[in-house]
Design brief:
- There is one protein chain.
- This protein is an alpha/beta fold and 216 residues long.
- The chain has five helices and 13 strands.
- The strands form three sheets. Strands 1, 4, 5, 6, 8, 10, 11, 12 and 13 form a nine-stranded mixed beta sheet that branches.
- Strand 12 (194-199) and strand 13 (208-215) form a beta hairpin.
- Helix 4 runs parallel beside helix 5 (161-172).
- The radius of gyration is 17 Å and the shape is globular.
Amino acid sequence: MIFLLSHHLSEATPTFAGGPPMKIQGLKEIENGDSSNSYIITMQNHLGTHIDAPRHFDPNGKPITSFSIDSFIFTSPKLIDIPKGALGSIQVSDLEPLRDKISDADLLMIRTGFQEYRSDTQKYSFSNPSISIEAAKYLTTFSNLRAIGFDTISAACPDRREEGRTTHRVLLTDRDFFIVEDMDLKQYPTDCNRVLIIPIFIEGVDSSPCTILAEV
């Protein structure tokens, strides 16, 4: 059985801190007398469910297209629940009791529950929980961990922008690591054998939107 862990994209997709939204423009449309349907889609590469590659914050880091396809296959995915409300912060004290579970993970997904506010664009885009710098440093000590994912619009919060930048640098600089943001973890299955993260491979950009599949 396969579960989808990424959100559909649309012009209503929330954007971090009110950034530019997706725009869809008809190029050819059958209802207008054209022979087929075709569209021009304009969007930022960090919109919706997306994967941050090291180049996002490390000028010497790899862009998304420099990774082999095997890099996006995770055979020991783990989900942990750390409930956080608006402007909450994930701390080392939240992670330490789950150390054994984290140590087994190659992909760690953190479910804060904040996904329930995704239809409230203002709250979801501006007041999301984030991960602290110390918690990010703590996660870098787990040698098996290759990626971390969140059910929030970003690992950073607009209210603490500089902290968020530092957190990203801690996780992404001088290492092959991914941050996956705006995941759909509401219906995540209890037992999962593999997670496949399928980016859009676009040359010349750091990161990209992705489709995420969980295999049970």
